[in-house]
Amino acid sequence: MLQMDLNTLFSLQGKVALVTGGSRGIGKMITQGLLQAGAKVYITARKKAVCEEVAKELSVFGPCIAIASDIGTPEGRAELLQALGQKEDKLHILINNAGTNWGGEFDKYPDEAFEKVLHLNVSAIFSMTRDFIHLLERAASSEDPARVINIGSMDGLHIPTVAHTGTFAYTSSKAAVHHLTRNLAVTLAPRHITVNAIAPGFFPSKMTEFVFDKHLADIEENSL
Questions:
Q1: Structure confidence at residue 193 (pLDDT)
Q2: What are the residues whose beta carbons fall under 8 Å from the beta carbon of 45, sequence distance 6 or more?
Q3: Residue 34: pLDDT over 90
Q4: What is the pLDDT of residues 157-194, one digit of tens each?
Q5: SS3 17
Q6: pLDDT value at position 224?
Q7: Which CB contacts under 8 angstroms, 24+ apart, belong to 216-220?
Q8: What is the pTM of this model?
Q9: Which 8-state DSSP code applies to residue 20?
């Protein structure tokens, strides 16, 4: 008989997960949730000291290991893949969470903003999924697929104005994340890997500190 208790239905016992941008914000929250569900979680971020400190903090919930890397570069991804491959022979869950933002006036919005934001928010998701595909395939089966989860945003589904500043690159990048997710889902389904995206709203993080400080009333009133 199927066990219908929550711990059984949502258990991640025996699963290995990797969370990019896992040292703060929603990445840290996701990591805690995975740990509490029973997974072994690797987190990666550029700052080694912070990454290791957060991994130590979250280890009270389960095995959490830090591997500092810059996933925005081929070298950083290769180092991450090598380090993880030395510890694990398969990867059940990849959370593509790392991202950045850039706000500014339309008339002065720099080209480098688009280049930086689109590179990390979109290109790195594709590259991470491609580079880690073999570890994901080793964990995948038709009965129990491997999982790729991309962190999009509600700002990729509508045009935000609550912060009263232009986030042209960010909103464009998150819309691209949702479409890239659909593309990858079709491509990887035959390989027993599911690809999904979520579209979070506002939550406390370093990226949203300014918005919460200056425009909390607008958020609470659900104002665009």
A1: 98
A2: 20, 21, 22, 23, 24, 27, 51, 54, 66, 68, 69, 98
A3: yes
A4: 887 766 566 788 999 999 999 999 999 999 999 999 99
A5: strand
A6: 47
A7: 218/162, 219/162
A8: 0.87
A9: E
Query: What is the per-residue pLDDT for 192?
Result: 98
| Residues contacting residue 36 through CB under 8 Å, at least 6 positions apart | 61, 62
CA neighbours closer than 13 Å in the CB half-sphere of residue 147: 17
Helix (H, G, I), strand (E, B) or coil at 196: strand
> Catalytic residue numbers?
170
Burial 38-47 (b: 16+ CB within 10 A, else e): bbbbbbbbbe
Domains of the chain, each with CATH number or no CATH: 13-220 (3.40.50.720)
Whether the predicted pLDDT of 122 surpasses 70:
yes
Residue with tokens 């994340």: 177
Give the dihedral of Cα atoms 16, 154, 112, 214; nearest 10 deg: -110
